[in-house]
Design goal:
Strand order of the largest sheet: 1-2-3-4-5-6-8-9
Strand content: 15-25%
Largest sheet: 8 strands, parallel, barrel
Number of helices: 12
Number of strands: 14
Order of helices and strands: HHEHEHEHEHEHEEHEHEHEEHEEEH
Helix content: 25-40%
Radius of gyration: 19 Å
């Protein structure tokens, strides 16, 4: 163990694996994390992850090219295993990226194919059992996503309980995800045995986040209790995928009507806005409102995790990375000086 590891709890081998200075990974927030955000995190010494799942291969290649035009650093492409992904994975291999992030399912073939193509594989899990399966299949890094996380949430265990369980279950680096939005959260995750942290909601308040102003203002004003977990509220376009989002007029109307299932919900199918491309956005649709989205943005799916109350100011993503990292290191060094960390 190096002096740095002893004082801070950092797994420097993990940083070497990804060739990063700070073990902070930006979550692949669909729609919100574009090339600018990913590159900014990478340039700050962290590791950016871009969501390119569900896109045709030419757009996957274009997304990779856009990031490379902004940073020489390593990054990962995120693929959703519940949607078609084989062609997209092949494109990632052909483009010779550093890593691929796989979530919403477990497919040993995908892990084996990615690794045989020279990619580092990061697999998102919601339990220690799933972590063991992914590690046995060859995953290099496990993302342990706690129930506090924003957006689509795979498991049902809170981060504080999930991370040590996963750390004890596998012999590969574990990255903690869910509810972590400042240096205190990162320090806690490292003390639980995590090698790094996976941060989404805090980056919604970054200057590079590609979200609508209304969405960002709602994030900045939200308390820790203003997110809600739903089994199937925003089910249009991505059914059977539990998620966490800010409470809004859609969720209140749904609850007031008795939380009816799809087919019997109030205002179901009503057009509440339009995408920048002109396509309709309907109520209960799984959709991240982009800057040029029009209509009732407040009523759309405003993904956010329970750490949202720590996002109080819009800052460049690089400053967010530095603030979280510096805060975590200061906390850990202070704990060591007080006799902790034994």
């Amino acid at each position: 163990m190096t002096p740095l590891q002893k004082v801070t709890g950092l797994n420097t081998d993990f940083c070497k694996l990804l060739d990063i200075q700070k073990p902070i990974l930006s979550a692949p927030m669909g729609g919100a994390a574009g090339p600018e955000l990913v590159a900014a995190v990478c340039n700050a010494g962290g590791f950016g992850v871009i969501p390119l799942w569900g896109k045709p291969v030419d757009q996957v290649r274009a997304g990779i090219s856009d990031i490379r035009a902004l940073t020489p650093r390593n990054f990962a492409v995120n693929l959703n295993l519940s949607f078609p992904y084989t062609d997209q994975l092949a494109a990632c291999i052909e483009e010779d990226i550093c890593a691929v992030s796989l979530f919403w399912g477990m497919d040993p073939w995908a892990i084996e194919t990615a690794k045989s193509g020279g990619l580092i594989v990061m697999a998102s899990v919601g339990s220690a059992r799933e972590a063991k399966e992914a590690a046995s299949a060859g995953a290099d890094v496990i993302i342990a996503q706690g129930w506090e996380a924003g957006g689509h949430v795979w498991g049902s265990v809170a981060t504080m309980a999930l991370v040590p369980a996963v750390v004890d279950a596998v012999d590969v680096p574990v990255v903690a995800a869910g509810g972590i939005a400042d240096g205190r959260g990162m320090a806690a995750a490292l003390m639980l045995g995590a090698s790094g942290v996976w941060i989404g909601t805090r980056f919604l308040a970054s200057a590079e986040a590609t979200i609508h102003d209304t969405y960002q203002r709602k994030v900045l004003a939200a308390s820790e209790s203003e997110t809600e977990w739903y089994a199937d509220l925003y089910d249009v376009a991505w059914p059977d995928a539990p998620h966490r989002a800010l409470a809004n007029s859609t969720s209140r109307q749904w609850r007031d009507s008795g939380a009816a299932p799809m087919g019997r919900r109030p205002d179901q199918g009503a057009v509440i806005g339009r995408r920048p491309t002109g396509e309709d956005v309907v109520r209960y649709q799984s959709y991240t409102p982009l800057p040029d989205t029009t209509g009732e943005v407040e009523a759309m799916s405003l993904w956010a995790g329970q750490g949202v109350f720590l996002a109080r100011k819009v800052m460049p993503a690089a400053r967010i990375v530095d603030e979280i990292y510096d805060g975590a290191m200061a906390r850990l060094r202070k704990g060591q000086a007080l006799g902790g960390g034994r």
